[in-house]
Input
Amino acid sequence: MEIKDNTLFRRYEFKYLLNRESANQIKEKAKKFMLIDSHAKKEKNQSYFVRSLYFDSDKCQNFYDKVDGVRSRKKFRLRTYDSQSSEDNLIYLEIKGRHLERTFKKRTQIKSAHLKFFYDNNKLPKLLSFYPNNDVVRDFVFTYLKTKIRPKVLIDYTRQPFINKYGLYFRLTFDSNLFSNRSKKLFIKKSTLSQLNTYPGLTILELKFERSIPLWFLRIIQSHNLNRKSISKFVLGMCKCNLAEETSD
Output
């Protein structure tokens, strides 16, 4: 939804943690300079649902790469914008990572019928024939077989995105209602869903830009005394579900 299929996108990402009052105030100020993303504008409350199934090794290598601040890293996830499985689901396989100071994301669309191959170690290589010459799928299959990554944690949240009216690329996303769940699949029965609420009542604000932050938003950062934080929904979910633990020296 955010980027085109098979497009490599590099940018800076800054994150902040807001209470409900600050989030609403900043949204109102942003509306003077930005537009609601076209996908969200059609939805109720001008926001949409996001679900990601993250993969990691049994030793949680991706988790610790993030926690330890490894400057060149990547992880894989399946992403959708639906909570229930159907033939019409939009599903993407994504690579999300960082190189030095910039983050990058690349994704490719996956057919619903092929989801089962992501859950079966023996059938997984068949994805290469379904998506020939596809860099994202090839990288995923290679990494899956080499490092034995497997689906670990499901992350759900509600996103309200804003895009710049004019000028350089600048995007704001307000993510709330963040839940996590242990899962081996992207879609699971409601009866087996035991989601854990992370940051109840709080909103994660993400700034995404290619070159610089507009002056008007720098004033917002100053007036609201915003402090940039290292926030990873993947790390939060892994900790909340007791799949991994941040350790301090």
The longest strand covers residues 150-164. The chain is about 25% helix and 35% strand.
